[in-house]
Amino acid sequence: MTDNELIKLPVDYLPVHVQASVRETGLVKWLLIIISTLFLGFFLFIPLITVFAEAFRKGIAEYFNAFSDPAAIAAIRLTLITALIAIPANLIFGLAASWSIARFNFPGKNILITLIDLPFAISPVISGFIFVLFFGLQGWLGPWLAENDIKIIFAIPGIVLATIFVTFPFVARELIPLMQEQGNEEEQAAMLLGASGWKTFWKVTLPNVKWALLYGVILCNARAMGEFGAVSVVSGHIRGKTNTIPLHVEILYNEYNFVAAFAVASLLAFLALLTLAVKSIIEWKYKHP
Amino acid sequence: MKFKFKKYSPLPGFGLTFGYTIFYLSLIVLIPLAALFFKSFSLTWHQFWDTVTDIRVLASYKLTFMAAFIAALINAVFGFIVAWILVRYQFPGKKFIDALVDLPFALPTAVSGIALTTIYSKNGWIGQILEPIGIKTAFSPLGIMIALTFIGLPFVVRSLQPALDDLDLEVEEAAACLGANCWQTFYKVILPAVLPSLLTGFALAFARGLGEYGSVVFISGNMPLKTEITSLLIISKLEQYDYAGATAIAVVMLIISFVLLLLINLLQSWNNRRVNNGGVN
Amino acid sequence: MSIIIHNISKKFGAFTALNNINLNIPTGHLVALLGPSGCGKTTLLRIIAGLETADTGKVEFEGDDYFSPVVYGKRIGFVFQHYALFRHMNVFENVAFGLRVKPRKSRLSKAEIKDRVFSLLRLVQMEHLSDHYPGQLSGGQRQRVALARVLAIEPKVLLLDEPFGALDARVRQELRRWLKKLHDEIHVTSIFVTHDQEEAMEVADQVVVMNEGKIEQVGTPEEVYHKPASGFVYNFLGNVNLFHGRIEHGQIHIGEISMEWPENELVINEDSHEQLKTATVFLRPHLLEIDKSPNYKSSFRAKIKHINAAGSQVKIELVASWGDSIVAEISHERFKELQLKKNMEVYVSFDKQNLFITPGLLT
Predict the structure, then answer these.
(1) How far is B17 from chain C (nearest CA, A)?
(2) Which CATH topology does C241-359 take?
(3) Whether complex ipTM tops 0.85
(4) Which of B280, C30, C93, C120 could anchor a disulfide with C89, C-beta 3.0 to 4.6 Å?
């Protein structure tokens, strides 16, 4: 049933004086839609357009020029490496956590769910900072790491760790509520039909949560590639070595190299649009299985 | 009878998955977080108190809280309207707007930061209109509020949408609301019904605003005592190798985050109870 | 394969779901676990399947001691109340599942699996819907797919949890007869759980009546109906009139009637050996007779409150002279002959042979 039907249908049944005021809702409706559109336009749409407008301000050649910079290429590479480690790590965790939480009963379950969500509640700067405290020179493991010549902070491992931390809950929090809602009768049925635990998981559990899983992964990916605060604290900003795409954007912007900054930023904006598109498709798929 | 941690289930794999969950959670989240608290114990109470009540730090709290609060308030109002039109009305471009609401989740904060700064600086699209009439947005607290409004919007809209979707009969009547009674219907019927969701959305947006860094750092200008948010202060302490100072401020912010998290959980369980009781309470 | 259940007990917190259950189910039987909701019948079924563990006791399959929580590979066919069909697989894939997940060595070839699945789908009359998904099927169709799915693994035991519970009355009737016929064909030891006595009587060849975690009676449908072991069984297996009587000097008094009842029968409290002062008397509505004048010794006066003549028998609600409500069922011929009307005073009589009496008060 569409919303239009909901509003139009009752009109015929209402007394005349009420019908008039129902027609007024049409006015209210469009007023609210216009307010929303203006608000979203100012706060969301214009910033989005600005990224692309600024990126192409000096033409296409200048736009692509930004990507010939070796530092930009290095930043893209590092971002991809980081995402390629962080996503599988959090994916495996998400599957393990959702299986243990949604398929079994044990005390303290709600506390565990809250703890899994914890990284979302923590400021990105603090998320990075805790790793500096742990692995940095003045940190707990710092002296030992320095002795053995292992670099974590101001190096790639630190960036990966901070990224894993900030994207930690994404997959798990998509899977847990869905699997709890679906219940485990299908898995019980599969096992009684002779399937082993693994086969039950691969053939029954996974296909039932595949869209939620994909959803969690694309959100995790968007955040992993775009994380700024946490990564900024642990990276050390060594150009060409420990800069991810967002950090590279920051450097270019602070050097007043706006076209290049927005050109590189447009990559991330494009990724965001792709994420939103995939998300919309998944939501549609979920409603029309 | 022997105490069993887990209730019996015919499905296998609890030990492996539960063990791995605890292991990974400890390794990535709990142990590093604990490190922060242990570090703060190395400070004397005096040092700690002096650091977290320093005038520059206090100014940053005030700014961060005010900006996050006002931004969350703006989002509560406009987010409500956006959620309302998305749930109640059919209009061209609705799918686009629905998708656009999630943009702040998907767009990296650094990108939104430089985009907002460019728009609201004095040569920008909006800045060049506002600046001549005396409204300075970029590099002022107003700019910080704008950035936090951008960041927080989806939280309010996404919290409210399911709640508004669940309203049925009351909303029918409200949609056909009668002139002067319209407002009464709104704040006597609709608002109480969706209040927990609205407050949850507000609290989520507020919590996110308190810790936000990427989108604010460009537009704020970062002037100590004026436009320096707490997250930035932690970073500048770190850059001066003042780990103790950074730790103290971080601990304060973390505790505030945890309190907010607790509050949000309470709000959500309140909401769940109401839903399970058929909304009688 | 026969199933022997030894001393099974199960508690959920403070609630006793099963209290020392012993049961022997011979090969090839079709057994109904019958009882009101909360009597432990589903818990017992789940323990037999291995989906739940018992606190004490064990389940043996044909002497093969089975108490392992590992449920797979046991060839136990379990049909869930809500079918638990795999929602992302179509009917064919659902039925083929048990054949496809076998270890490679014992797995059939693709062509053989296809043949087997289609022969099963023919058996449950679902051949034409093999490419449909569970979401597109009706309740009865899902039930039949669920059955075909468990039959695919050639189960040694078939367990069904409220197999007709979620269906509407007409489909339920049809599936009952169909299940009975199916069992006659494949003859696999089957247990089904139901709270519907009619269903249990019609389908099963052995009925296990359960109440509050205990077995009240085991027997053929005729046995449990005609020779109930307890007031509960008599009460649960059909409509019943229930009277509370006083016992004095070998006589039971109910309102204005009294009957001789030997004191050494039934009316002894086992624990205290004290003589009980009360008894509960049960009588089925169709065993009551209505007359315009008293003809037996044990007849009493009653007033007609309501008449329902829609049905194979005429249902008459009366109020006895001492105030109890009574329901009687008489034939349409007798009803016409007597020309009964509302508010008419009549005499109700019964044959003492048909009474069922238990000591104490039962409500």
Answers:
(1) 18
(2) OB fold (Dihydrolipoamide Acetyltransferase, E2P) (2.40.50)
(3) yes
(4) C93
